[in-house]
Amino acid sequence: MKWMKDVKTYTPPDFHVIRDPDRCIKCKACVEQCSFDATFYDEEEDKIWNWDAKCVGCNRCAAFCPTEAITIENRTSPYRINESWGKWNVVGVKKRAAFGGAPVVSMGADKPYIVYWDHMLINASQVTNPSIDPLREPMELKTFLGKKVDHLEIENGKLKTALSPQLEIELPIMFAAMSYGALNYNVIEAIGRAALELGTYFNSGEGGLHKDHYKFKGNIIVQVASGRFGVHKEYLDVASAIEIKIGQGAKPGIGGHLPGEKVTASIAQTRMIPKGTDALSPAPHHDIYSIEDLRELIFALKEATEYKKPIFVKIACVHNIAAIASGVAQAGADVIVLDGFKGGTGASPQVIRDNVGLPIELGLASVDDRLRQEGLRGKISLIASGGIRNSMDVVKAIALGADAVYIGTATLIAIGCTMCQQCHTGRCAWGIATQDPFLSKRQNPNIAAQRLVNLVNVWGLEIKETLGAMGINSIESLKGNRLALRGFDLNEKEMEILGILHAGE
Question: Which residues bind [4Fe-4S] cluster 2 (predicted)?
Answer without folding.
Answer: 34, 55, 58, 61
